[in-house]
Amino acid sequence: MADSSDEEYLGTDWLSYSERTEWRDVEPLGQDDGPSPVVSIAYSQKFCEVFDYMRAVIAKGEKSKRALELTTDALRLNPANYTVWQYRRDILRELKADLNDELDYLSEVIGQNAKNYQVWHHRRVIVEMLNDPSNELELTENALVNDGDAKNYHAWQHRQWAIRSYNLYDGELNFVDRLICEDQRNNSAWNQRFFVIKHLGFTPEVIRRELDYTMDRIRVIKNNESAWNYLVGVMRQGDNSSGQLSSYPEVVACVEQLYQAGNRSPYLMAFLIDLYREQALQLKAAQDDQLARKVYTLCEDMATKHDVIRRNYWHYVATHLKKQLAKDKEEQH
Predict the structure, then answer these.
(1) What is d(CA 320, CA 323) in angstroms, rounded to the nearest whole number?
(2) Which residues are catalytic?
(3) Cα separations (Å) of 283 from 156, 254, 319, 320, 331?
(4) Which pLDDT score is estimated for 1?
């Protein structure tokens, strides 16, 4: 009996390869699981036959139009099979096939298997062979937006590759801003924004603009880890990528104002801990200095109220700061 998924992909009117005249010259090659397989996978009859013929074709090194069609059937049954994808590429090269047709085929496959690494990798190779990335931004936008999965790692990876390899940065910030506006917690979109800005260059003007952009969004959703991570990442890009959090007093003032207004977002509090810890170490403060005490208090609040699951980490941060400050004091003497 055929598997229901086989019926879906190959159709109920599918003709067995053993019944096809054009395949009578090929002896199918069965899968060798050894003399005593521990667990035999219950492949469907169609699956076994397609891959038996696939193995036979690979064994004899046949690269023909019928072999290409066979890979299509095999990949419908198992789109994650790297060996079949690689052999398909070999056939395409041998036949000097129209690679634009292959891109059309891949658009269909990606629509059904958007989280399959092998499909995206094959797409990349074909685009490189054509040296034509003109469809890639639209393709990935469809995967990220129209298919309702704006955090698809494979689509983002492919998009970054296309942008970086073919200098397609124009308009990308507008695309990313649209995704962030639609979902301000979309960490993938924030990551893409950093990717683009890093290419353009973190000049003082760009850093200032990005800090304003991010703080505007933090004011809307204060408990947004993605925006806080982006904020710190941008601040660190100042002073030749050795930026201190205290180098941007307007941001510090805004964050402290949010805290004083009663906001206890763990990401806001983690920002303040990093800020006060940096300042205490930079000033070589005493263990009981006001800055150090702020760190200890915030760490205790995180450990007992706002981020209990990581309480051991916050206890470590406080203890480590005490040791660092004590060491600094000894060295001063």
Answers:
(1) 5
(2) 115
(3) 42, 22, 18, 16, 14
(4) 35
- Say whether pLDDT at 10 is over 70: no
| Residue 223 φ/ψ, nearest 5 degrees | -100, 50
Longest dimension (CA), the chain: 93
Q: In this structure, what DSSP letter does residue 38 have? A: S
The residues near 129 (Cβ < 8 Å, ≥ 6 apart) are 93, 99
Contact 44, 6 (CB under 8 A): yes
Amino acid at 181: C
Question: Can you give the pLDDT at residue 220?
Answer: 96
Kind and range of the H or E run holding 102: helix 99-112
* C-alpha count within 13 angstroms, C-beta hemisphere, residue 89: 17
User: What's the pTM value of the predicted model, to 2 decimals?
Assistant: 0.89
Tokens representing 183? 């979902």
CB count within 10 Å of CB 310 equals: 15
What does the pLDDT look like over 19-70, one tens digit per residue?
Answer: 999 999 999 998 887 777 777 777 899 999 999 999 999 999 999 999 999 9
**Side chain identity, residue 299:** C
Which residues are CB-contacts of 122 (< 8 A; sequence separation ≥ 6)?
A: 85, 88, 89, 106
* AA letter at 284: K
